[in-house]
Amino acid sequence: MSVSPAATTPHASKVRRRFLERLRNSGVNDPRVLRAFAEVPRHLLIPEALRDRAYQETPIPIGEGQTISAPGVVATMTMALQLEGHERVLEIGTGSGYQAAILSRLASEVVSIERIPRLAASARSALDRFGVTNVVVFLGDGTRGRPDLAPYDRIVVTAGGPEVPRPLLEQLAPDGMLVGPFGQRRSQKLTRFRRRSDGGFAGDILGECDFVDLIGQNGWQR
Ligand code: SAM
User: Fold this and answer.
1) Considering 19, 51, 91, 188, which has the largest number of Cβ atoms within 10 A of its Cβ?
2) Domain coverage including residue 92
């Protein structure tokens, strides 16, 4: 993955060192996950005027009324997926492409779906510029998943829906896991579902959160 000159000034290196230290202090203790966060140039996925906030613990607007999630939230979701490297992952909500770029370094293949054409196109070209070859970005309604490419070992939903979309659970491989925010419009519970070997699902709640809306057939109707 190429790193921009902007990331190599002494100030930029210091900012990114502090960023990684903050992630470590917040409990991100998997060296592979920390390496992925060290290597993905988050500032290049953010509008130029807002780049000085790239490594702060805050969501940032990326246009079309959408945001790139705060890095700590991305880290929590990434850790919750318990990736070992061999997994096929489905991401709903490509947005800037940041979560997809992180996942690309921790899994074997990532299928990512975005409903807004401009975001899908710009994430796709950013991933190409970074030299990421194991992520495919599709335009469409992610609440339906991509049954033609299922099953997935992991599914991550990066927008908040009223409840977990049933088609996504059905596209999980046996023992697979889905992580996503579900609940009210401005307050959701970050939840992890596991597909048990008897075909049922077990859920555990990882925390409270506030994501932009998951809009689609099995999400909010705008
Ligand atoms: N993973 C993104 C990142 O790393 O930048 C986070 C993006 S933002 C929090 C959530 C994204 O979900 C938005 O880009 C939004 O357009 C998208 N989204 C909402 N509903 C969707 C749906 N049904 N299918 C696909 N994408 C959806």
Assistant:
1) 91
2) 5-209
Of 43, 74, 116, best ligand 1 pocket probe by most atoms within 8 Å of the beta carbon: 116
- Kindly report the CATH number assigned to the domain that includes residue 36: 3.40.50.150
Distance CA 106, CA 100 (A): 10
Into how many domains does the chain fold? Answer: 1
Told to judge if 122 belongs to the known catalytic residues of this protein, a careful annotator would answer: no
From 112, 158, 103, 119, select the one nearest 138 (Cα to Cα): 112
Q: How far apart are the first and last CA of the chain?
A: 36
pLDDT, one tens digit per residue, over 59-107 is 999 999 999 999 999 999 999 999 999 999 999 999 999 999 999 999 9
Ligand 1, atom 27, residue with closest C-alpha: 93
Q: What is the pLDDT of residues 110-134, one digit of tens each?
A: 999 999 999 999 999 999 999 999 9
